[in-house]
Amino acid sequence: MGDIDLKFKDKFIKRYSKLTDFDKFKEYSSKFLRRSIRVNTLKISVPELKKRLSEWNLKQIPWYEEGFWIEHKKKERRDIGNLREHSLGYFYVQEAASMVPPIVLNPKKNSKVLDACACPGSKTTQLASIMKNTGIIIANDDDYRRLSALNINLQRSGVLNTIVTLGKAEHIKEKFDYILLDAPCSGTGVIRKSLKTVKTWNPNMIKSLSGLQKKMIATMFNNLNEKGIMTYSTCSNEPEENEEVIDFLLKKFDNAKLENIKLNIKRSNPILEFENKTYDKKIKKCLRIWPQDNDTEGFFVAKIKKL
User: Fold this and answer.
1) Is the pLDDT of residue 185 over 90?
2) Which of 29, 64, 204, 222 is deepest in the core (most CB within 10 A)?
3) Residue 28 in 3-state DSSP?
4) Candidates 117, 119, 185, 235; catalytic one
5) For the chain, how many structural domains are there in total?
6) Residue 1 pLDDT grade (very low, low, confident, very high; cuts 50, 70, 90)
7) Percent of the chain surpassing pLDDT 70
8) Residue 192, domain CATH
9) Please, are residues 64 and 92 in contact by the beta-carbon 8 Å criterion?
10) Are 298 and 263 spatial neighbours (Cβ–Cβ below 8 Å)?
11) Are 78 and 279 in contact (CB under 8 A)?
């Protein structure tokens, strides 16, 4: 299968050339994504699923023992969503970089967890798997049209510890041990999955999203119990949606502490200076992944502890 022919706006090229090797970024953003799956250990073990998927090559994702890149041995099929094992909830079709935020959050069994922007449920079902269906997860989203997909995915995956709620995350006032804030974003890290991003991208949209993300992260931090952990993530490569949001949080709350993220994953340096703005040096602890780093989607992840 050939690559995608992408036409980037001049403003986009100028901006991103300051942030990364633009030719590499374009090369990888123009490639089709490798298919990847996460074994749902609530229903099946990794060896059992491998046995059932004998017609497929499963290549281990380095940063997650239950994640695999998948390819048909005879190159005759790509429709992994049509497999019986998918219908039975034995695996979830999930992009490899998208598995990172729940791994980083790593909630303990029997804890109280909020997935603030949960639809369509890839990370919620992963959290339930990590927690072995114990404790409680509040899976919230503000788009009722997407809730049906969330409910179907929870049911198919055999998730029993989750309550689904509808509402704006920034209006939630409740205390949690762990919070996953996978914030609404411009999606510049997932161009290879959503080509319209190239057309819709504009600097004003980024400013508007950054304002919303700051509001959301402040609310979520207030909702954390003491010694609680939060992960903030986006599938954007924009500093204003990532490093700037974390910089805002650190300035606003003295008791917000960034934690190191130790994963077997190739990463790029977080952006500490951009367009006359400088960000807190502690942001070096955050995880910035460009599509070209691991041949995945682009992602940003921060792990925050409330002291």
Assistant:
1) yes
2) 29
3) helix
4) 235
5) 1
6) very low
7) 99
8) 3.40.50.150
9) no
10) no
11) no
**Position 216: which residue type?**
M
Distance of alpha carbon 119 from alpha carbon 279, whole angstroms: 31
Neighbours of 5 (CB within 10 A): 7
Bridge pairing between strands 136-141 and 112-115: parallel
In a domain, 283, yes or no: yes
Produce one character per residue of 21-58: b if its CB has 16 or more CB atoms within 10 Å, e if not: ebeebbebbbbebbbbbbbbebbbebeebeebbeebeb
Tell me if residue 119 is catalytic.
no
Residue 125 lies in a domain: yes
Task: Tokens for 239, please give them.
Answer: 């500093």
Examine residue 23 and state whether it is found in any structural domain, yes or no: no
Q: Residue 175 sits in which domain range? A: 99-306
5 found inside a domain: no
pTM of the model: 0.96
